[in-house]
Design a protein that fits this description.
The protein has six helices and 18 strands. By secondary structure, the protein is of the alpha/beta class. Strands 1, 2, 10, 11, 12, 13, 16, 17 and 18 form a nine-stranded mixed beta sheet that branches. A five-stranded mixed beta sheet has the order 3-4-5-6-7, with no helix packed on it. Strands 8-9 form a two-stranded antiparallel sheet. The radius of gyration is 19 Å and the shape is globular. The chain starts with a strand and ends with a strand.
Length: 300
């Protein structure tokens, strides 16, 4: 199975989100009506001018121990919503103590890709079951459900699973066929295999390090292949797609493509891999935001 390596894919269809400026390890973003400034380790270049940003509603200050805290200016709610108009999705945005907001906007390129495959399958009269592992706040799960798939969303953090349920409700999908599972992803996959459950598509965003509910340690380079092999046992006789997304430097696009090619050597289909990113509005630079590896039954 040949692999194709694509140039960076840009999430450029947003209206409610914009990456305004970057430099000196920080990025300035617009999330709906509010502007936030946060650190980003990929922003290794200097700003065009060194004057500090003054136009912001929230600013995340790093401390010397690696943590940090938000400084808010003016009336800003604890949470608000933004829409991804191309798919008709609504997401809750909430600045957290770890600098994140509950959404990774660059992932829109993967939502667009996966939903196109699901809709194409539906037009051919096919029902699609999707498993989303390490699902976080569930944007990919909500996008798949909006496209008509039956979805199983799994994350070890109860708060993230509840956030996914909230995003589904905001997107008009409160009654959609989504299973919300709080569990260690490896253990869940192994149990699903023993139960004989099968899925047509799998999405995963594995962390570099992690700890299960009973103290089990996860280390990407040691444990990912075993998880992939377990996931292969869950694939239906006619799988639709398999998506690996990662934010760690330990997993390059070439590695992701090699993993999928080794996992599905006789499946046919198409393997693609590359980076995803966001355009900087001020000067047109591109901020790289992670990598993807995709296997699909067919190219779109």
């Amino acid at each position: 199975m040949p692999s194709e390596y694509s140039p960076i894919l840009l999430a450029d269809r947003w209206k409610d989100y914009s990456l305004l400026d970057c430099g000196d390890g920080m990025k300035q973003e617009r999330w709906g009506d509010f502007k936030l400034v946060r650190p980003d380790p990929q922003v290794a270049w200097p700003r065009i001018d060194r004057a500090p940003w003054t136009d912001w509603d929230g600013y995340y200050h790093r401390n010397e121990t690696g943590g940090g805290k938000w400084e808010f200016r003016g009336p800003i709610p604890d949470a608000w919503t933004i829409q991804y108009a191309p798919l008709g999705l609504t997401f809750r945005i909430r600045p957290t103590g770890f600098k994140h907001t509950g959404l990774f906007p660059e992932q829109a390129v993967n939502w667009d890709w996966s939903t196109a495959l699901i809709r194409h399958a539906h037009r051919r009269g096919r029902e699609v079951k999707v498993l989303n592992l390490f699902g976080y706040t569930g944007a990919a799960s909500v996008a798949a459900a909006q496209s008509g798939a039956h979805v199983c969303h799994v994350d070890a953090a109860k708060g993230m699973v509840e956030w996914c349920r909230e995003n589904a409700t905001l997107s008009g999908l409160a009654d959609a066929p989504i299973r919300y599972i709080v569990d260690d992803c490896r253990k869940f996959v192994q149990r699903e295999a023993r139960r004989g459950h099968r899925y047509d598509a799998i999405i995963m965003d594995p962390p570099t390090y992690g700890r299960g509910g009973s103290g089990e340690m996860w280390k990407l380079e040691d444990d990912l292949w075993e998880l992939l092999e377990d996931c292969k046992r869950l694939l239906s006789d006619r799988p639709l797609f398999f998506l690996i997304n990662s934010y760690t430097a330990r997993l390059s696009p070439v590695v992701a493509a090699n993993l999928l090619t080794a996992l599905l050597p006789d499946a046919g289909g198409v393997v693609t891999a590359g980076e995803i990113g966001l355009s900087v509005k001020r000067d047109g630079k591109v901020l790289p935001c992670g990598i993807y590896g995709r296997w699909a039954e067919h190219a779109l």
